[in-house]
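Open question from group meeting: does this chain pack into something compact, or does most of it stay loose? Before anyone orders reagents, we agreed to write out a predicted structure and look at it together. Recording both the input and the output here so the notebook holds the full record.
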Amino acid sequence: MVRRSLTSKEFTARHWETLKVSVVLLTLLVIFFGQAVFLGRKLLPADIAFTDPVFLPHAPADFTEPHNVLLYDQAYQFYPWRVYASSAVRQGFLPLWNPYVYSGAPFMAVDQPAVLYPLNILSYVVSPPDAVLLTALVRLFIAGLATYWFVRTLGGGSLGALVGAITFAFSGFMIVWLGHPHANVAAWLPAFFLTVEWLYQRTTPRHIALVALTIAAQLTAGHAETALYTLTAGGLYYLLRTSSAWWSNRQLRSSVMRLVALATAAALGAALASVHLLPFLEWLRYSAELTWRTGLGGLRATRLGPKYWVAGLLPMLLPNIFSNPTWPGQYRSFFPGWNFVEQTLYVGILGLPLAAAVLVARRADKRVWLLAALGLAALGAALRLPVFDWINYLPLFNIAAYGRFRLVYSFCVSVLAGLGARDLLKAEGGDDIARPAIWLLVGSTVMGAIVLLIAPHILSEMNRAAPFPFRQLIQEALSYAFRVSNIQMYWPLLVALAAVVILGLYVRRVLRRQIVQPMLLLLVVVDLFALGMGYHTAVVEQIIFPETPALQLLKNDTSLFRIVGTNIDLMPNTGMIYGLHDVRGLDFPGRRYQELCQAIGGRDWLGYGILFTEQLELRLLGLLNVKYVLTSSSLEPDILSNLRLRDVDNDVSVYENLAFLPRAFVVYRAQVAQDSQDILPTLLDPGFDLHSEIVLEKPPPPDFVEAAQAYGAGGHTGLGSPQATVEITSYEPNYVEIIADSPANGFLFLSDSYYPGWKAYLDSAEAEIYQADYAFRAVYLPAGRHTVEFAYQPAPFRVGSIASGLTLFVVMILLIQPWPRRVRDSSARLAAGGDLKAY
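Structure tokens returned:
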């Protein structure tokens, strides 16, 4: 085959094609998010907050229930993080530490806030509510455009590439996870496949740099678990491509060079993301997440039977078969233990037939079979089918949520569907693929109709053993879901029938290709839009976390304090929006802090949050600097005796904790625990004076011991109760300054979480931070007046910043190297949609 460089005319045509596709994708995105774009609404499920007793009395008059209750993470977790990160960046500092949850916790290291993720950096230039829409648009645009060029590179033609791009960008996985960090990663999956395909074709420094950039984008996107699946899928695609080439031509040198190129790109990508990765890896060591995920191994030990396998496949044809969270009434999945987000597999009713038919039309194309194999393996692992389930027991995969494999399946099917669409319409009639596609559509329609007929009875029987209130809710939901007027349930079957008619007329030469092309594209768009446009909530800005009288009372108190709510009163993380410090949070806390909260009545919420019931241990909460309690519950008399009512906002009472202790104070007595497990029982002992004594895990300095020998009492180390003055002169997220005046040697206790990376300075000289009272900080304080500073200076962030900066310089050098000579076929084959070689 004759090879030559890409001509100037072809190069210009490529860019014009990119521009035209970009316009099409942006137009579709504007239509999809029409309410937010044209009506000025905010793409944020803020209506979920009105299920919180603190906000419920202040809900809009027409509020009955949230539009989509499954979006609570976006309201309570991701949006407060966005508010905090945006505020910090605009004030000119990086939010390394979050003082608003868990008595202080790492922020950038947590992974999901993804503060340095490129798309999130773009969002800091607009307000947080507007940033939600901006990042959603950019994610789907990147996903669609990269899928387009990947399909084009595989020979999909412009129409086929557009079908593949729309199918993936608006697929079920991308839409239901759109407001989560999962979509940050998923948006780059097509770009990763595209760049590794380029690298396979041309192992140049520039292509190595491009692969490295896509890897870094995924690793900084805020969801390491999803990145595990995307990077594995793209890496396997490249490795299998390389192995297949070596098997065919036995050219060992070129294969080794390809492997070295990928390894180099992977190393550069990881190094480029090290400013995010290194703090995250340190956080994993101290957080409760690994413990929680390791415990999930028991779930994998439970074998799922045929009932679950069949049920898992049904959403491929009927995405709403087990209900939809946007339908009227209280949402309950008809299939016990599942929910809509985790079970979604839908890529359009046309996607599967086109993807299956292209295997026949391109049976000699190894890339097609490779993508089909990857998609099938991902589907099997996601549903835990026999043999495929072995993947879930591999290292790292054994602590990850296997449902994320649905992303890889969705992408592979979307690409194959694009190739199928191109082959279907590459010549009049397209019998080699049209007829199989028609029969597959007919089969899907018949199967879907049968499922719709028998599903209500089967699902009703499955829930017959449930408690009466729940069973009644299910029956009401089933009645609505399967009624004839609920077109969303059987919409895919209508689209399939329309496609059968159009393709049938096309095969019989009644409709020409020029007419069928836009009709097919329109069916793909209408199918996916009809089922996805109403999924996300768009609200007016005025209702986004309003300021209530109870919250105004707390904000008017200018002292330094923390709060706690009972049950779902003022949900964890919500205080971040109002600048209120909370002892709860909505992400994995540190292991020790979690154990402390559990010991004083806190309970796990959904595996990654802490809630407190109305059984409050006010003495220990006082140690955590809790001054105010918000509750809509009835408290017991012995608890009320230690509280003072400050305000009542409808059903929510605001109490002041009489056992409240200041954020920082000086103690003169200390116990040294022989075992860390002995500390919690000591703290829980009512006879232990939390205000005048602390528990350490290592011996105090000799000066403190000498004072104890002179003034100790009761077997404890330290003086009696000298009076000290403590003033917190500066309290910032990454820095705390305290001026303390003590008449004797003691310890300055700060009820902020202990975490490596914090440095203490006593009169500008570095001092040791003791781990005190199991999860907090203390600094030895000699007698006299001193300035104590705490500065968060995590070594992983410093090292990662240097590594990322140097790597970015290297990557930029590789990118600006002169372009290699591009190897291309003739412009005629390019215009016909042939195999596009790498840039």
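Observations to bring back to the group:
The longest helix spans residues 431-462.
The chain is about 50% helix and 10% strand.
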